[in-house]
């Protein structure tokens, strides 16, 4: 009798423990950490916030999306490794920061490849562009979407920036990209790879003389306060691939993955719809504040920059692939 009662208690105890852990599971949303390096006021910052909003609306109580802007959680140097280790779940690095994982994505850094952001968008939405989202699966990374920022402008601490000869011998901060390194070498300048979070100080203290970035990044990081001149070169693009850890993504419950995919589609529309407007807003703010001079370039000036940067293409054509370059070029013509 005593024996039967103790068995009963043990069984009851196990049942209670099971129901506790089941309800804990039901109550504990999946924490999704989304880390990025820019300000919340930028296209990427806004996209990440929209993703959180829509994901939590579509999956109430099932996910808790935590967004960390401004390199608060991980900066450029660490975010990929952190993603692969599972310390963060979604990141959206600039397309210039993937060359350790695939050479193909270097295509976005070829100078003067795209005429404008519409061409960038057409290429990203083409079969060739979409295939790049899956090109790093063997390295554990799954691309989820492309997000826009905008075209890059050059800035320096010198007075003149209309012609390539004005940057000869200057030190430029670049993103971690071999193509960008070659681009500045072609100009006779000295490139230095630095994390985004370090750029303001490097410009302020003269560790580097200049940099290249979009209007929204220049304004939100206050680069225009520590540079003398910004030239409207539009010589390249800063866009993003939103990426996740492929194994983590595949391991999510199906309804959660589907909801997150839908949230990502909405966030992508939102960020990409805003990007041009936010860059234009920040270009105007920079002009109004008048801390750095903005130089407009003539057709001849642009042609001179294009010619000076041209040798970069031949150096990377083998790695990137002539076919892929052709697909990107055809996006200009539509
Ligand atoms: C970013 O827009 O994510 C950063 C770009 C940069 O490193 O310059």
Task: Write a structural description.
This protein has a 6-stranded mixed sheet with strand order 7-6-8-5-9-11. It has a 5-stranded mixed sheet with strand order 2-1-3-10-4, sandwiched between helices. Helices cover 47% and strands 17% of the residues. It has a single domain, classed as 3-Layer(aba) Sandwich (D-Maltodextrin-Binding Protein, domain 2). By secondary structure, the chain is an alpha/beta fold. The longest helix has 36 residues. Bound molecules: succinic acid (SIN). Succinic acid binds next to loops.
Put the structure in a nutshell.
By secondary structure, the protein is of the alpha/beta class.
Number of domains: 1
CATH architecture: 3-Layer(aba) Sandwich
How large is the count of helical segments?
13
- Structural class of the secondary structure composition? alpha/beta
Bound molecules: succinic acid
Q: How much of the residues is beta strand, in percent?
A: 15-25%
Low-confidence stretches: 11-25
Report the top-level CATH class. Alpha Beta
Chart the SSEs and their pairings.
Elements: H1 2-27, E1 30-35, H2 43-58, E2 63-68, H3 76-85, E3 90-91, H4 117-125, H5 127-131, E4 141-151, E5 153-156, E6 171-174, H6 178-186, E7 190-193, H7 199-204, E8 210-213, H8 215-220, E9 229-231, E10 237-245, H9 246-250, H10 254-289, E11 293-295, H11 299-309, H12 311-320, H13 322-330
Parallel strand pairs: 1-2, 1-3, 6-7, 6-8, 9-11
Antiparallel strand pairs: 3-10, 4-10, 5-8, 5-9
Helix pairs in contact: 2-10
This protein binds succinic acid.
Succinic acid (SIN) is lined by residues 37-38, 94, 149, 175, 196, 213, 217, 238.
């Amino acid at each position: 009798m005593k024996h039967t009662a103790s068995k009963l208690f043990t069984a009851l105890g196990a049942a209670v423990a099971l129901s506790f852990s089941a309800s804990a599971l039901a109550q504990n949303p999946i924490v999704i950490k989304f880390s990025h390096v820019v300000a919340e006021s930028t296209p990427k910052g806004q996209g990440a916030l929209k993703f959180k909003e829509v994901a939590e609306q579509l999956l109430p109580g099932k996910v808790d999306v935590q967004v960390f802007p401004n390199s608060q959680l991980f900066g450029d140097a660490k975010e990929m490794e952190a993603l692969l280790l599972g310390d963060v779940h979604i990141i959206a690095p600039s397309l210039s920061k993937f060359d350790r994982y695939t050479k193909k994505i270097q295509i976005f850094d070829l100078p003067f490849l795209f005429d404008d952001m519409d061409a960038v968008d057409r290429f990203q939405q083409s079969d060739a562009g979409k295939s790049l989202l899956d090109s790093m699966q063997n390295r554990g990374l799954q691309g989820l979407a492309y997000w826009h920022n905008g075209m890059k402008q050059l800035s320096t601490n010198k007075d003149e920036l209309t012609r390539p000869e004005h940057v000869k011998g200057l030190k430029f901060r670049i993103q971690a990209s071999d193509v960008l390194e070659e681009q500045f070498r072609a100009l006779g300048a000295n490139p230095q790879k630095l994390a985004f979070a370090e750029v303001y100080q490097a410009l302020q203290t003269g560790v580097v003389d200049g940099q290249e970035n979009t209007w929204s990044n220049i304004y939100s990081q206050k680069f225009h306060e520590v540079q003398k001149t910004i030239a409207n070169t539009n010589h390249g693009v800063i866009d993003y691939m939103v990426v996740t850890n492929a194994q983590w993504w595949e391991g999510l419950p199906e309804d959660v993955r589907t909801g997150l995919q839908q949230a990502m589609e909405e966030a992508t529309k939102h960020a990409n719809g805003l990007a041009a407007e936010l860059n234009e807003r920040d270009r105007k703010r920079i002009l109004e504040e008048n801390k750095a001079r903005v130089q407009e370039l003539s057709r001849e000036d642009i042609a001179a920059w294009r010619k000076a940067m041209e040798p970069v293409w031949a150096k990377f054509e083998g790695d990137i692939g002539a076919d892929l370059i052709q697909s990107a070029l055809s996006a200009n013509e539509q």
